């Protein structure tokens, strides 16, 4: 995709703070970090989101997340990690090139990554299970 910023960064056309690179991915520091060490895993090929990326590459991205998080936990060091992957405008995706956020967490960092828990009613449980099982 010629107009995609993450395609250009992933393929080295735009310089970035690169932590790691292999034939499939580049891992960079986020320019607007939630916390110190916030990184992004970018595939070098363009896929808009998790529904588009091939299963094998999605698996490799997860394995790479494990590798980077394990190393950075010691290197930074940090107390925990959120691995976040936004899909779609409604879910907070702003760059429509698949990417995985690796967000180091520190005790009392107040980064505010989360949601307000609701309550699973029997009606909603039954509806969701019935609809999902029909298409899975
Ligand atoms: P999303 O909201 O799509 O899940 O995440 C996009 C992320 O990309 C944001 O955290 C934002 O700070 C980061 N970002 C956007 N443009 C750039 C850029 O040009 N370089 C880097 N390193 N990060 C970017
Ligand atoms: Zn792209």
Account of the protein in words:
The chain is an alpha+beta fold. It is built from 3 helices and 5 strands; from the N terminus they run αβββαββα. The longest helix has 21 residues, at 55-75. It is globular. The mean pLDDT is 97. Residues 5, 16, 28, 30-32, 40, 86, 92-95 line the site of guanosine-5'-monophosphate. Residues 5, 16, 28, 30-32, 40, 86, 92-95 line the site of guanosine-5'-monophosphate (5GP).
Attribute tags:
136 residues; alpha+beta; five-stranded antiparallel β-sheet; 5 strands; 30% helix; globular; binds guanosine-5'-monophosphate; binds zinc ion
Kindly summarize this structure in a few lines:
The protein is α+β, with helices and mostly antiparallel strands. The chain has 3 helices and 5 strands.
Q: Give the N-to-C terminal Cα separation.
A: 31 Å
The parts where pLDDT drops under 50 for at least 5 residues are none
Helix proportion: 25-40%
Strand order of the largest sheet: 1-2-3-5-4
Number of helices: 3
Radius of gyration: 17 Å
Beta content comes to: 15-25%
Bound compounds, each kind once, are: guanosine-5'-monophosphate, zinc ion
The computed structural class is alpha+beta
Let me know the largest β-sheet: 5 strands, antiparallel
Give the quaternary arrangement of the chains. Answer: single chain
């Amino acid at each position: 995709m010629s107009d995609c910023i993450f395609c250009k960064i992933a393929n080295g056309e735009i310089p970035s703070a690169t932590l790691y690179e292999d034939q499939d991915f580049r891992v960079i520091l986020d320019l607007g970090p939630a916390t110190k060490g916030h990184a992004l895993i970018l595939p070098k090929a363009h896929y808009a989101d998790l529904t588009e990326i091939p299963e094998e590459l999605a698996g490799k991205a997860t394995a790479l997340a494990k590798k980077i998080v394990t190393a950075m936990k010691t290197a930074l060091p940090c107390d925990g990690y959120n691995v976040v992957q936004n899909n779609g405008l409604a879910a907070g995706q702003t760059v429509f090139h698949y990417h995985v956020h690796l967000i180091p967490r520190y005790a009392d960092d107040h980064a505010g990554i989360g949601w307000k828990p609701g309550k699973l009613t029997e009606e909603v449980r039954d509806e969701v299970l019935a609809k999902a099982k029909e298409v899975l």
